[in-house]
Specification:
The longest helix is centred in the middle third of the chain and has 12 residues. By secondary structure, this protein is of the alpha+beta class. The protein is 13% helix and 21% strand.
């Protein structure tokens, strides 16, 4: 078989009447986005290739698929002429943005994607933890990571509606004010000091203080708590910038009140800025044309280390930014925006 008709497409239907794990896929450059010209129900069923860990016969093996309406997939047509016998080889992670359920190449139900931004599960970009980040093994952190990494309960098997909107109280000006009021708080010994213990009380890992763990994320949790932007139930309590999920996982679960941007092109005052060296702070200015901005950070120093000696307002550049979380009071309870950075 000489395969020449490869495709990239979007799953629009997973309810295979034969229960064989087939999906209907609208393929780019093969199918029109117009549902008037080509309704979802007229798309051909595509067979999904299973891993060799599944026998794929006699009902032996794993569940056929884990795809959802809105999933991007890659595959090929076995019938070069008719283009009706498609095979899906795998799914493609990307950066999810809201779709238009009235058009093709999106979930017809308007449910997925239910969280926008990177499609990689929370923590999947973590390649190991340093010895000073043993706290990520704590059961409460792992539990939080698992709940977000796998999606909200039930989403893998049902088409329930989006989550209850998160309420944001006030604006990020209060967050910046709280953070700036802490500038000058310093350690009296490694990762400890009278002004630092209170930060850990705002996290789900309160023993981090006694264990002398890095406290930049604890500082941000405390500032958000003191600003009153979120309820106690909805605010972040993670002790990690991004490893094991951290603030990135929290933001994914609170959209649109918190909008996660991976590899952002600009920073806004009030953004939670997550650096590639596993550090986090609160932006106090917008980034300028050169990508420079100011950021209030805990556990930093004159050199900008993530293992510093206090709370300082630092000059930073976009080149060191991994992601940013924008807290958006105006988006609380609103519909999804048409485009995300």
């Amino acid at each position: 078989m000489n395969i020449t008709n490869w495709f990239t497409g979007v799953v629009e239907d997973i309810n295979d009447p034969l229960q064989m794990g087939r999906v209907r896929v609208r393929c780019f450059n093969y199918h029109t986005p117009s549902k008037f010209d080509l309704p979802t129900e007229d798309l051909p069923w595509s067979t999904c290739i299973l891993p060799v860990t599944s026998a794929a016969m006699n009902g032996i093996g794993e569940t056929p698929i884990g795809l959802l309406p809105g999933s991007w997939v890659f595959g090929f047509f076995r019938d070069a002429g008719e283009l009706q016998d498609a095979v899906v080889v795998g799914s493609i992670p990307s950066f999810s943005t809201p779709g238009d359920p009235t058009q093709g190449f999106s979930d017809p139900h308007g449910v997925f994607p239910s969280a926008f931004g990177s499609d990689i599960p929370a923590g999947a970009t973590t390649y190991g933890y340093g010895s000073n980040e043993a706290y990520l093994g704590q059961s409460n952190e792992i539990s939080n990571f698992n709940s977000v990494a796998t999606g909200r309960p039930g989403y893998a098997s049902t088409l329930q509606g989006p989550q209850v909107p998160i309420q944001v109280n006030g604006n990020v000006g209060s967050l910046i004010s709280v953070a700036r009021g802490e500038v000058g708080v310093r350690e009296t010994s490694k990762n400890q000091g009278p002004g630092i213990a209170k930060y850990w009380a705002a996290t789900s890992y309160r023993s981090g203080y006694n264990e002398r763990q890095p406290w930049c994320a604890a500082f941000v949790c405390w500032c958000i708590q003191q600003s009153g932007l979120f309820s106690e139930q909805d605010r972040p309590k993670t002790a990690a910038a991004y490893r094991g999920g951290g603030f990135e996982a929290w933001a994914r679960s609170k959209y649109p009140a918190a909008v996660l941007s991976m590899r952002p092109t600009q920073i806004r005052a009030g953004d939670l800025v997550i650096y590639s060296f596993s550090h986090i702070g609160i932006a106090s200015t917008n980034s300028d044309i050169s990508g420079n901005f100011r950021c209030i950070e805990g556990n930093t120093n004159a050199q900008g280390s993530r293992e510093g000696n206090g709370v300082w307002e630092k000059s930073r550049n976009m080149s060191s930014v991994r992601s940013a979380v924008t807290i958006s009071p105006s988006a609380s309870g609103s519909s999804a925006p048409s485009v995300l950075a």
